[in-house]
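<instruction>
Derive structure tokens from the sequence
<data>
Labelled lines for chain and fold:
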Amino acid sequence: MSTVNQDITVAELSYFDRVRHLADAANPAFAAGCLLVPLAVLAVSVLVSSTTLLFYTHVAAGAVWFGFALIFPALIGPTLGGLSEEASAAVTGTLVPKAVFFLVGFSFTTVISGTVLLTGDIGLGYGFSSTWSSAALGVGWGLFAFGLAVPHRLQLSAYYETQSPDPDAERLESIEKKNLVVGLFEAAVMLGIIALMTGFRLGV
């Protein structure tokens, strides 16, 4: 199992040491790319003052975020539940570090690009004058914060458990059930954001 030494497990590391451990487990280049590539596209769209590029950056990043939020609890979670304990632990140990960096990069890009679109000089020009845009932006940032506080912590809890010297199969099963509920909640909120943005774009 992955430990720093014989006495200290991954879950007992300091915050920065855990981040460094996760980056190493994910592959440092992959972790950096997940954060830098989508944000670089966002930066380019702002620097060249391209509303079109900014809009498609927002839509693409949001689609990736939404898609993964559905796939993880609906497909990956049940698949892991059908594997042996050893196989499930191996997949979780490989997948979760990558998923955390991937989702943080794309979700952060989604809310930042949405904020610039609605409030910046190169945005859509509506600012916060629309109730729809204000609501969508607020819910989007709320969902981003929720993602950091709940589903990411659940996924990391599963990861740390698989990296412990004696993983608790019952605890891992409990975490997967919570992940399903949280994933369904995220999906419902994301559908709500889409409805809000549809109303915003249609001007209803």
Summary: Confidence is low (pLDDT under 50) at residues 1-7. The chain is about 80% helix and 0% strand.
